[in-house]
Amino acid sequence: MTKEIVLYKIPQVFEKAAILESSVLKEYNASLEPFNEHAKRSLGQYKVVDGELAGSSPLMQIHLLNSGVLPEGDRLVTRADLEKAVVFDRGNKFLGGIYTDFGLALKTEGDPYEIDGVKVNDAIARKLAMQLKKREIALGGGVLIPFSAFKETNKESERYGVTLDLNDLATKETIRPLQEFTWSNLRGEGLSCASLDFGRGWDSDDGHLGRSYGNGRVVVVRAGGTPKKFLVKLKNEIDAKLHSLQ
User: What is the DSSP code (8-state) at residue 94?
Assistant: First the structure.
């Protein structure tokens, strides 16, 4: 079993954050088969460490979500979830020594960040800024976009092998101004990874959307216990069945 921590608890139901298990890796790797070679290099960096899925980058997490590989009922962690986890993880047993990505920070319409002389994020940043404008979401001083608001496209011409677009979950409620959050490190321009680092700093200064390190982990939120609505429904069904047998 991987590490986990309870985020909140009420009678008969609770929600917890957990490190995603490595059991999804085989299916995840299989989901990369239709992709071009650039994409496979960017997305195929997960490893197995002590039963955990090791590694993390925004592009990998977005594909993990869009591929349908996540266990039923799991969702990728958000900034708000991680803020709770940090408070409850007093012994630093859950998040100690690891980092995890939780979204992308878009600060400006363009991005001068280069890899081998190529502006790898510029076209993506400009496209996302245009899509935000069409949704009447102000870029302002920059926005935090959760992974759930993205879809990817297999595109050979992109350096990463994939490009990103906003999906129908990209709304004013889900995409929030960067200024609503505290940051330890924040780039002044372009498109960057938003992550909680191994020292518990809130970072958004890395422009390499496809870079993954061995101490990265995928953190998911999953429900536990038995929801009250289900218990009531089950009781009513049992009562009706017993009545029919009388």
Answer: S
3-class secondary structure, 32: coil
Torsion sign (Cα): 169, 170, 173, 177:
positive
159 part of a folded domain: yes
Checking 148-152 for CB contacts under 8 A at 24+ apart, the result is 148/65, 148/75, 148/76, 148/78, 148/174, 149/174, 149/175, 150/62, 150/65, 150/66, 150/104, 151/62, 151/66, 152/59, 152/62, 152/63, 152/66
**Residue 242 falls within a domain, yes or no?**
no
Confirm whether 239 is domain-assigned.
no
Residue-range definition of the domain harbouring residue 53? 4-230
Do residues 39 and 29 make contact, with C-beta atoms less than 8 angstroms apart? Answer: no
Q: For residue 245, give the 3-state DSSP assignment.
A: helix
Q: What is the pLDDT along the chain (246 residues), one digit of tens a residue?
A: 677 777 755 555 578 999 999 999 999 999 999 999 999 999 999 999 999 999 999 999 999 999 999 999 999 999 999 999 999 988 888 999 999 999 999 999 999 999 999 999 999 999 999 999 999 999 999 999 999 999 998 887 778 999 999 999 999 999 999 999 999 999 999 999 999 999 999 999 999 999 999 999 999 999 875 445 544 554 455 456 545 554
How far apart CA 41 and CA 35 sit, in angstroms, is 10
Residue whose C-alpha is closest to residue 216's, from 12, 60, 26:
60
> How many domains is the chain built from?
1
Tell me how far apart the alpha carbons of residues 50 and 215 are, in angstroms, rounded to a whole number: 12
163 found inside a domain: yes
